[in-house]
Amino acid sequence: MRRKRVVLITAGVVAALGIAAAVAVPAANDWLANRHQQTNSYATGAEAKADRPSVPRWLADDAKSVSYSMKTTGGERLLKATLPGGKPPARCEAVPASQAKAIQLRADWFPKDAQGKASLSCGTYYGYMDGDTFYAWQHKDDLVAGERANAAP
Protein backbone atom coordinates (compact mmCIF):
# COMPACT_ATOMS: atom_id res chain seq x y z
CA MET A 1 0.00 0.00 0.00
CA ARG A 2 2.80 2.40 0.88
CA ARG A 3 4.55 1.62 -2.40
CA LYS A 4 1.36 2.37 -4.37
CA ARG A 5 1.02 5.71 -2.57
CA VAL A 6 4.63 6.69 -3.40
CA VAL A 7 4.06 5.80 -7.06
CA LEU A 8 0.84 7.87 -7.19
CA ILE A 9 2.46 10.87 -5.51
CA THR A 10 5.46 10.66 -7.84
CA ALA A 11 3.17 10.41 -10.88
CA GLY A 12 1.17 13.41 -9.67
CA VAL A 13 4.30 15.51 -9.19
CA VAL A 14 5.63 14.55 -12.64
CA ALA A 15 2.28 15.40 -14.24
CA ALA A 16 2.14 18.77 -12.44
CA LEU A 17 5.68 19.60 -13.55
CA GLY A 18 4.81 18.64 -17.14
CA ILE A 19 1.78 20.92 -17.15
CA ALA A 20 3.79 23.76 -15.60
CA ALA A 21 6.52 23.34 -18.23
CA ALA A 22 3.94 23.31 -21.04
CA VAL A 23 2.67 26.68 -19.84
CA ALA A 24 5.96 28.27 -18.75
CA VAL A 25 8.18 27.42 -21.73
CA PRO A 26 6.07 29.20 -24.41
CA ALA A 27 5.56 32.18 -22.08
CA ALA A 28 9.31 32.38 -21.44
CA ASN A 29 10.08 32.12 -25.16
CA ASP A 30 7.63 34.94 -25.92
CA TRP A 31 9.14 37.10 -23.17
CA LEU A 32 12.67 36.44 -24.43
CA ALA A 33 11.72 37.27 -28.01
CA ASN A 34 9.98 40.53 -27.09
CA ARG A 35 11.91 41.80 -24.07
CA HIS A 36 13.86 44.32 -26.16
CA GLN A 37 10.83 45.68 -28.02
CA GLN A 38 9.39 49.01 -26.91
CA THR A 39 6.07 50.33 -28.17
CA ASN A 40 4.58 53.79 -27.68
CA SER A 41 1.60 55.78 -28.93
CA TYR A 42 1.59 59.52 -29.56
CA ALA A 43 -1.05 62.08 -30.45
CA THR A 44 1.12 63.71 -33.13
CA GLY A 45 4.26 63.18 -35.18
CA ALA A 46 5.90 66.12 -33.38
CA GLU A 47 5.29 64.44 -30.01
CA ALA A 48 6.70 61.12 -31.28
CA LYS A 49 9.86 62.77 -32.66
CA ALA A 50 10.38 64.75 -29.45
CA ASP A 51 10.12 61.59 -27.33
CA ARG A 52 12.07 59.19 -29.57
CA PRO A 53 15.06 60.36 -31.61
CA SER A 54 14.74 57.13 -33.64
CA VAL A 55 11.34 58.16 -35.09
CA PRO A 56 12.08 59.18 -38.70
CA ARG A 57 12.45 62.94 -39.13
CA TRP A 58 10.44 62.80 -42.36
CA LEU A 59 7.27 61.95 -40.42
CA ALA A 60 5.02 65.01 -40.59
CA ASP A 61 4.74 66.93 -37.32
CA ASP A 62 0.97 67.07 -37.84
CA ALA A 63 0.61 63.30 -38.32
CA LYS A 64 -2.01 61.98 -35.90
CA SER A 65 -2.46 58.76 -33.90
CA VAL A 66 1.16 57.68 -34.20
CA SER A 67 2.08 54.17 -33.06
CA TYR A 68 5.77 53.31 -32.96
CA SER A 69 7.57 50.13 -32.00
CA MET A 70 11.30 49.55 -31.95
CA LYS A 71 13.82 46.90 -31.04
CA THR A 72 16.32 48.33 -28.55
CA THR A 73 19.02 45.91 -29.69
CA GLY A 74 18.84 46.61 -33.42
CA GLY A 75 17.31 48.70 -36.16
CA GLU A 76 13.94 47.01 -36.45
CA ARG A 77 11.07 49.51 -36.40
CA LEU A 78 7.31 49.68 -37.01
CA LEU A 79 5.36 52.87 -37.61
CA LYS A 80 1.68 53.62 -38.08
CA ALA A 81 0.30 57.13 -38.46
CA THR A 82 -2.70 58.98 -39.80
CA LEU A 83 -1.34 61.46 -42.34
CA PRO A 84 -2.94 64.80 -43.21
CA GLY A 85 -4.56 64.68 -46.62
CA GLY A 86 -3.87 60.95 -46.92
CA LYS A 87 -0.61 61.59 -48.78
CA PRO A 88 2.64 59.75 -48.04
CA PRO A 89 5.64 61.68 -46.74
CA ALA A 90 7.40 63.71 -49.44
CA ARG A 91 10.60 61.72 -48.93
CA CYS A 92 8.93 58.49 -50.07
CA GLU A 93 9.38 57.01 -53.56
CA ALA A 94 7.34 54.34 -55.31
CA VAL A 95 8.86 50.82 -55.27
CA PRO A 96 7.52 47.36 -56.11
CA ALA A 97 6.49 45.22 -53.13
CA SER A 98 9.10 42.66 -54.16
CA GLN A 99 11.87 45.07 -53.07
CA ALA A 100 10.60 45.36 -49.49
CA LYS A 101 12.57 43.50 -46.86
CA ALA A 102 10.91 41.30 -44.26
CA ILE A 103 9.12 42.77 -41.27
CA GLN A 104 11.04 41.67 -38.17
CA LEU A 105 8.74 42.93 -35.40
CA ARG A 106 5.15 42.26 -34.48
CA ALA A 107 2.54 44.50 -32.93
CA ASP A 108 -1.20 44.00 -32.66
CA TRP A 109 -1.78 47.30 -34.48
CA PHE A 110 0.49 46.46 -37.43
CA PRO A 111 -0.94 44.36 -40.31
CA LYS A 112 0.58 40.89 -40.70
CA ASP A 113 0.31 41.14 -44.49
CA ALA A 114 2.02 44.54 -44.78
CA GLN A 115 5.11 43.34 -46.64
CA GLY A 116 3.05 42.23 -49.63
CA LYS A 117 1.42 45.68 -49.77
CA ALA A 118 4.66 47.69 -49.78
CA SER A 119 4.61 50.38 -52.43
CA LEU A 120 6.92 53.02 -50.96
CA SER A 121 10.52 53.42 -49.89
CA CYS A 122 11.04 56.21 -47.38
CA GLY A 123 14.74 56.41 -46.61
CA THR A 124 15.46 53.16 -44.77
CA TYR A 125 11.76 52.35 -44.34
CA TYR A 126 9.32 50.45 -46.56
CA GLY A 127 5.66 51.29 -46.37
CA TYR A 128 2.27 51.85 -47.93
CA MET A 129 -0.83 53.96 -47.54
CA ASP A 130 -4.20 52.46 -46.59
CA GLY A 131 -6.61 55.37 -46.96
CA ASP A 132 -5.07 58.08 -44.77
CA THR A 133 -3.17 55.57 -42.62
CA PHE A 134 0.51 55.09 -43.31
CA TYR A 135 2.20 51.82 -42.33
CA ALA A 136 6.00 51.55 -42.47
CA TRP A 137 8.78 49.30 -41.22
CA GLN A 138 12.53 49.32 -41.12
CA HIS A 139 14.70 46.23 -41.48
CA LYS A 140 17.80 46.16 -39.27
CA ASP A 141 20.13 45.59 -42.26
CA ASP A 142 18.94 48.83 -43.90
CA LEU A 143 19.66 50.82 -40.74
CA VAL A 144 23.17 49.35 -40.53
CA ALA A 145 23.83 50.05 -44.22
CA GLY A 146 22.58 53.64 -43.80
CA GLU A 147 24.81 54.21 -40.77
CA ARG A 148 27.82 52.87 -42.66
CA ALA A 149 27.11 55.13 -45.62
CA ASN A 150 26.83 58.16 -43.32
CA ALA A 151 30.08 57.27 -41.53
CA ALA A 152 32.08 56.86 -44.74
CA PRO A 153 34.63 59.65 -45.32
**CA distance, first residue to last residue:** 83 Å
| SSE series | HEHEEEEEEH
Tell how many strands the DSSP assignment holds.
7
Question: What percentage of the residues does DSSP assign to strands (E)?
Answer: 25-35%
The largest sheet is: 7 strands, antiparallel
Supply the helix-strand structural class. alpha+beta
Pick out the low-confidence regions.
27-33
What is the radius of gyration computed over CA atoms, rounded to a whole number of angstroms? 22 Å
How many helix segments? 3
Q: Largest sheet, order of strands side by side?
A: 1-2-3-7-6-5-4
Query: Mean pLDDT, nearest integer?
Result: 84
Question: Which descriptor suits the 3D outline?
Answer: elongated
The level of helicity is: 25-40%
Structure in words:
Strands 1-2-3-7-6-5-4 form a 7-stranded antiparallel beta sheet. β2 (64-71) and β3 (77-82) form a beta hairpin. It contains 3 helices and 7 strands. The chain is elongated, with a radius of gyration of 22 Å. The chain has 153 residues and is α+β, with helices and mostly antiparallel strands. The longest helix has 33 residues, at 2-34. The chain has helices spanning 2-34, 45-51, 140-151; strands at 37-44, 64-71, 77-82, 93-94, 120-122, 125-130, 133-138.
